[in-house]
């Protein structure tokens, strides 16, 4: 549908008085499979297509989106966007100024080996049923659940400045969850992370997860947690596993570096940020071993693409260098406010929605602490925390509290026994300042987070976080009353 | 929009052949939202989308497909995709049968208001301007959103069911801050945009924002609290997941055993999708008429909501709380009500010797579902109270608290209630404010990191 829709919408918007307009068309296919307790609970194929027109009129934004792909609908939507932009002026305030990103033309395709939509349904279901059968060998489980999902999106971006970009993005992922319940306890284990793992790429990534190999061990852990002692309370040395580190980066670094939050543009919903502009280049965010990048070019990341939804090319930019805070995630509207040009992190959750500043792949670089086992061996007294269970953080991204599914006490460099219901809490810069070791490249995984909520109406973004296990000193563990 | 839901649904069902039973669900959302921040309108959007979801079923084999291509080709493709999955699907003996047609077809427009359906961007912008003006008077940075939405849900299946619901929602919310730690919040929600008084919403938030300037620390610990309606609402939103869901009960992770005392005897909570004082939705996504379900009655766990799948497993009938197929999340209580008490609202604080007045809770998370243990932060106006008077604003605190335990220690409920719509989940609840004898604040955001 895209050619004529784009032309008619841009013409109508500029003819209606816009100084700038862009159009995004998108056609997205989603496949979801779910095997629960030995039966196929859900098998679903979804298709959604439409376009959105974004206009600037006298420095005010307007946006209208429609699923109807008739060219006359494109004109109507464009004129609706112009009328909305004119209404925006009623609110007063200063006009929007965009950076001078040059318009580009090109195409991008997610690299993959095996198209997930070409793999037969039989093969995909067999994989899930095999995992289910492995989980089913373990006595004492209450529920077992294996899931698979894939997304393919064809989208076109064009602007009145002359940009024209076509992208074909492919994502897929899988995982499993088991629960074990008794009179007092309900315990859950998931693999490889809470909600599984998801990447940009082909079905080869799902095969590489080796879900069947891990099903039995993870299931046994869920049952064992029912009888494990409660996690102790107090200040401890903690080692956090790779997937929980990904969530830690997401909540305490990925969100506060979003420049729209910093500027108050998300204050009524997602919140603001403690990383105010006077901190840029100045604040010691973490210890000297902490290095974080935002890398939209990282192979396999859920935040990997050719261009963002404002037509800015994918890039890798430093965020934290040797512990110092040096960069934001930006958009064409916000970057000039800190004297920069957009680094390309403005993305929309769907054709229905405007682009907002979203994480790309905000990655904690690997360190020099070797393997996880090396790091445990180097720790006299502490606790290893694995796989996210709960997460909460304040609106400025300072005061966080996480729960993990499982913990192991560490004594004299060895795992000394499993504990249940572990939680830890901290204040962001103090916590990152206490990081004294990060495992090396062999332990580093680029995790997909497909459920990041932001904006009104709320949008859900797919973002990535690379991380390796890391160690933190003097962390408050075991929060609340557990008597 | 000019779409005729019944014709589209019938066209989808007509494309299903080969002995399959089928259910078709039509949803149409027209949503416009004017967003403001930094005391100006910075985002202003409108979207329209209609989707048909088709579930086919034969001897326990099930396939589901959806599309927003509602022309003939799009529906052909929809039926083909659903059947292709259904043919390959392993049979599920627990699959719920399609809902039968009710004695009287439900075609509801409770909570549909022409004023909201016809609202335009100028009307929303003027509401935003009124809110911005109220905050600016107090020197506060104003942010917020004013949205209007029309929703049409229609369900038909091959057993002859055809039911529908149309509703509207208008919602205005604002957060006002001074950039130095003070913050105020207010929200108004109604099916009818004419019921929303933007100036009053602005004044409420501005009063809180101005009053919370200069907040200081409070040592974490257990303190009595007064929770405003906003804070109570979000607690009920989480109880919907960990206490009121038929699936949570069946899977043993619910914090609410039925037939037992779980909360204090002033606590009565129910779900009612047809009460016009809420945000009505008369049917669910399986086309089943919503029943009024008593959840907690005078502190006793009384019931949970069901969809057709959990109802079959529990040996009962659906209460009309199903999500779109294939639903792995279980049923959801969307339309909650908590019975008000007998205390005039102003006396909740007046009757507290010392403790914390909480405007709003923020970013809750389930630490342990079976214990009903949640964590979260306070936000947008937290105050220390002594001898029934607000003494000073305090910095936001983290808390980690079992909700059944806290709701066993409610000493007073306001004799008024307010309708509030959740930001994330879309769960609406009409709730009173409450005074609770003890709440466990487990962490502060210490002053040294405040800038
Ligand atoms: Zn997020």
Describe this structure in words.
The complex is a heterodimer of chains A (483) and B (451). Chain A contains nine helices and 23 strands. With 483 residues, chain A is of the alpha+beta class. Chain A has two domains: 3-225, 2-Layer Sandwich (PmbA/TldD fold), CATH 3.30.2290; 234-479, no CATH class. In chain A, strands 1, 2, 3, 4, 5, 6, 7 and 8 form an eight-stranded mixed beta sheet that branches. In chain A, strands 9-16-17-19-23 form a five-stranded mixed β-barrel. Chain A has a four-stranded antiparallel beta sheet with strand order 12-11-10-15. Chain A is globular, with a radius of gyration of 24 Å. Chain A starts with a helix and ends in a 6-residue tail after the last strand. Chain B folds into two domains: 5-209, PmbA/TldD superfamily (PmbA/TldD fold), CATH 3.30.2290; 215-444, no CATH class. Chain B starts with a helix and ends in a 7-residue tail after the last strand. Chain B has ten helices and 20 strands. Helices cover 21% and strands 38% of the residues of chain B. The interface between A and B is large, with 94 and 98 residues. Strand 3 of chain A pairs parallel with strand 2 of chain B, so a sheet runs across the interface. Zinc ion binds at residues 250, 255, 452 of chain A.
Which ligands accompany this protein? Answer: zinc ion
Shape assignment of chain A: globular
Strand portion of chain B, in percent?
35-45%
Q: Total number of β-strand segments of chain B?
A: 20
Structural class of chain A: alpha+beta
The gross shape of chain B turns out to be globular
Main sheet: strands, sense, barrel of chain B:
7 strands, mixed
Query: What is the count of DSSP helices of chain B, taking H or I runs of 4+ residues?
Result: 10
Strand content of chain A: 35-45%
Structural class of chain B: alpha+beta
Q: Summarize the main sheet of chain A.
A: 8 strands, mixed
């Amino acid at each position: 549908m895209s050619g004529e829709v784009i032309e008619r919408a841009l013409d109508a918007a500029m003819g209606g008085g816009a100084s700038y307009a862009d159009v995004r068309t998108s056609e997205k296919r989603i496949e979801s499979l779910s095997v629960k307790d030995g039966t196929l609970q859900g098998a679903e194929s979804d298709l959604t297509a439409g376009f959105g027109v974004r206009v600037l009129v006298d420095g005010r934004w307007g946006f209208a989106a429609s699923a109807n792909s008739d060219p006359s609908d494109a004109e109507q939507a464009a004129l609706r966007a112009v009328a909305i932009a004119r209404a925006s002026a009623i609110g007063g305030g200063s006009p929007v100024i965009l950076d001078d990103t040059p318009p580009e033309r090109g195409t991008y395709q997610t690299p993959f080996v095996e198209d997930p939509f070409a793999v037969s349904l039989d093969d995909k279901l067999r994989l899930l049923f095999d995992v289910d059968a492995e989980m089913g060998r373990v006595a004492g489980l209450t529920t077992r659940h294996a899931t698979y999902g894939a997304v393919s999106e064809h989208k076109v971006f064009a602007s009145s400045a002359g940009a024209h970009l076509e992208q074909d993005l492919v994502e897929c992922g899988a995982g499993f969850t088991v629960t074990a319940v008794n009179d007092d306890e309900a315990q859950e284990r998931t693999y490889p992370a809470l909600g599984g793992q998801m990447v940009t790429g082909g079905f080869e990534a799902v095969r590489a997860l080796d879900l069947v190999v891990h099903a039995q061990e993870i299931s046994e852990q869920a049952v064992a947690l029912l009888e494990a002692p409660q996690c102790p309370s107090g200040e401890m040395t903690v080692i956090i596993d790779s997937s929980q580190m990904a969530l830690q980066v997401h909540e305490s670094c990925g969100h506060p570096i979003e420049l729209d939050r910093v500027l108050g543009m998300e204050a009524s919903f997602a919140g603001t940020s403690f990383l105010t502009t006077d901190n840029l280049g100045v604040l010691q965010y973490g210890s000297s071993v902490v290095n974080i990048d935002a890398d939209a070019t990282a192979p396999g990341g859920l935040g990997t693409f050719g261009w963002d939804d404002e037509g800015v090319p994918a890039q890798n930019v430093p965020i934290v260098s040797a512990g110092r805070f040096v960069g934001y995630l930006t958009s064409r509207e916000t970057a000039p406010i800190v004297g920069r040009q957009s680094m390309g992190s403005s993305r929309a959750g769907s054709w229905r929605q405007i682009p907002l500043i979203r994480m790309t792949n905000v990655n904690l670089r690997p360190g020099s602490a070797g393997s996880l086992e090396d790091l445990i061996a180097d720790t006299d007294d502490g606790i290893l925390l694995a796989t996210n269970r709960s997460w909460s953080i304040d609106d400025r991204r300072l005061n966080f509290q996480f729960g993990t599914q499982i913990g192991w006490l560490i004594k004299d460099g060895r795992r000394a026994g499993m504990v249940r219901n572990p939680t830890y809490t901290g204040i962001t810069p103090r916590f990152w300042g206490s990081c004294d070791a990060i495992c090396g490249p062999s332990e580093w995984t680029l995790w997909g987070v497909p459920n990041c909520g932001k904006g009104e109406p709320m949008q859900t973004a797919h973002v990535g976080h690379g991380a390796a296990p890391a160690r933190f000193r003097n962390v408050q563990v075991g929060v609340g009353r557990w008597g | 929009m000019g779409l005729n839901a019944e014709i589209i649904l019938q066209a989808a069902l007509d494309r299903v052949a080969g002995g399959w039973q089928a259910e078709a669900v039509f949803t149409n959302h027209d949503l416009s939202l004017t967003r403001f921040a930094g005391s100006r309108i910075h985002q202003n959007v409108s979207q329209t989308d209609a989707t048909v979801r088709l579930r086919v079923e034969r001897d326990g084999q099930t396939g589901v497909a959806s599309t927003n291509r509602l022309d003939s080709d799009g529906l052909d493709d929809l039926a083909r995709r659903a059947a292709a999955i259904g043919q390959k699907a392993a049979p599920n003996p627990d699959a719920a049968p399609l809902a039968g047609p009710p004695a009287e077809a439900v075609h509801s427009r409770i909570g549909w208001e022409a004023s909201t359906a016809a609202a335009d961007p100028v009307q929303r912008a003027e509401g935003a301007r009124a809110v911005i003006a109220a905050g600016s008077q107090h020197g506060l940075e104003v942010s917020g959103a004013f949205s209007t939405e029309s929703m049409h849900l229609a369900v038909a299946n091959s057993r002859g069911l055809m039911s529908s619901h149309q509703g509207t929602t208008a919602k205005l919310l604002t957060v006002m801050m001074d950039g130095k730690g003070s913050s105020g919040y207010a929200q108004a929600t109604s099916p009818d945009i004419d019921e929303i008084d933007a100036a009053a919403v602005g004044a409420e938030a501005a009063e809180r924002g101005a009053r919370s300037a200069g907040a200081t620390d409070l040592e974490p610990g257990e303190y009595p609290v007064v929770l405003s309606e906003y804070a109570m609402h979000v607690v009920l939103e989480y109880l919907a997941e960990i206490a009121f869901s038929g699936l949570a009960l069946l899977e043993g992770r619910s914090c609410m055993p039925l037939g037992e005392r779980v909360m204090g005897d002033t606590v009565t909570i129910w779900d009612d999708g047809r009460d016009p004082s809420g945000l009505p939705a008369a049917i669910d996504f399986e086309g089943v008429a919503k029943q009024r379900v008593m959840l907690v009655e005078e502190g006793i766990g009384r019931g949970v909501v069901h969809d057709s799948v959990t109802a079959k497993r529990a040996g009962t009938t659906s209460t009309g709380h199903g999500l779109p197929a294939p639903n792995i999340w279980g049923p959801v209580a969307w339309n909650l009500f908590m019975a008000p008490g007998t205390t005039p609202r102003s006396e909740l604080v007046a009757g507290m010797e010392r403790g914390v007045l909480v405007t709003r809770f923020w970013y809750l998370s389930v630490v342990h579902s079976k214990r009903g243990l949640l964590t979260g932060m306070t936000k947008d106006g937290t105050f220390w109270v002594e001898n029934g008077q607000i003494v000073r604003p305090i910095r936001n605190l983290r808390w980690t608290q079992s909700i059944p335990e806290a709701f066993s220690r409610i000493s007073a409920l306001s004799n008024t209630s307010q309708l509030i719509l959740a930001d994330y989940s879309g769960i609406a609840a009409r709730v009173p404010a409450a005074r609770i004898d003890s709440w466990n604040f487990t962490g502060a955001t210490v002053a040294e990191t405040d800038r």
